[in-house]
Amino acid sequence: MPNTFPIDECGEAVARIDHIGIVVQDLGDAIAHFTGNYGFREDSRQRIEAVGAESAFLSIAGQSVQLLQPFAPGSIRSYLEERGQGVHHLCLEVPHIEDALAALPGEMDTPVVTGGRGKRTCFLADDRFGVVIELSQSPQS
Fold first, then answer.
1. Which residue from 35, 48, 77, 128 has the least number of CB within 10 angstroms?
2. Is 54 buried (19+), middle (13-18) or exposed (0-12) by CB count in 10 A?
3. How are beta strands 16-23 and 63-70 bridged, if at all?
4. Separation CA 77–CA 15 (nearest Å)
5. What is the C-alpha to C-alpha distance for residues 69 and 80, in angstroms, rounded to an integer?
6. Buried (b) or exposed (e) across 64-96, using 16+ Cβ within 10 A?
7. Is 130 helix (H, G, I), strand (E, B) or coil?
8. Going residue by residue through the chain (141 aa), what tens digit of pLDDT does each one get?
9. In which order are the strands placed within the sheet that holds 41-48?
């Protein structure tokens, strides 16, 4: 199957892994677990109305994990109820979210919202391997 994702002049995908999202039942407990047991640092917390979840970003060695606890009906709560706690999504940061969506079959009309850390984000329909793919674009892009 040919690659449809945007590539640069060197033939490399124009994306990087931004973070991995984990849905949790209790945000405070999860933060304490990751910071206390594994040395993660809590970077930020915020309420993300667009997905109905409280969010905390943790980091370790330059890598980020987003913990999500649902507070309202929506995709995060549905995921927790259907599958339990665990890895929900892999977020890829792209320079221009609309260009990336245009390059992916069937994704052109995917809604883009303001997500964690003020980035423009969207969740793709593709969860073929049990993990949702999120695209994000930094505010300065």
1. 128
2. middle
3. parallel
4. 28
5. 9
6. bbbbbbbbeeebbbebbeeeeeeebbebbbbee
7. coil
8. 455 666 666 555 667 899 999 999 999 999 999 999 999 999 999 999 988 999 999 999 999 999 999 999 998 999 999 999 999 999 999 988 998 898 888 888 899 988 888 889 999 987 788 889 999 997 765
9. 41-48, 53-60, 63-70, 16-23, 86-93, 132-137, 120-123, 113-114
pLDDT of 1: 46
Q: How far apart are the first and last CA of the chain?
A: 30
Contact 51, 89 (CB under 8 A): no
pLDDT score, position 85: 97
Burial (CB < 10 A; 0-12, 13-18, 19+), residue 41, is exposed
Q: Secondary structure of 103-128 in the HEC alphabet?
A: HCCCCCCCCCEECHHHCEEEECCCCC
pLDDT score, position 5: 65
Rounded to whole angstroms, the Cα distance separating 43 from 86 reads 20
Q: In this structure, are residues 134 and 121 in contact, taking their beta carbons and an 8 Å threshold?
A: yes
The residues, any chain, with a CB within 8 Å of residue 20's CB and separated by 6 or more, are 64, 65, 66, 87, 89, 90, 91
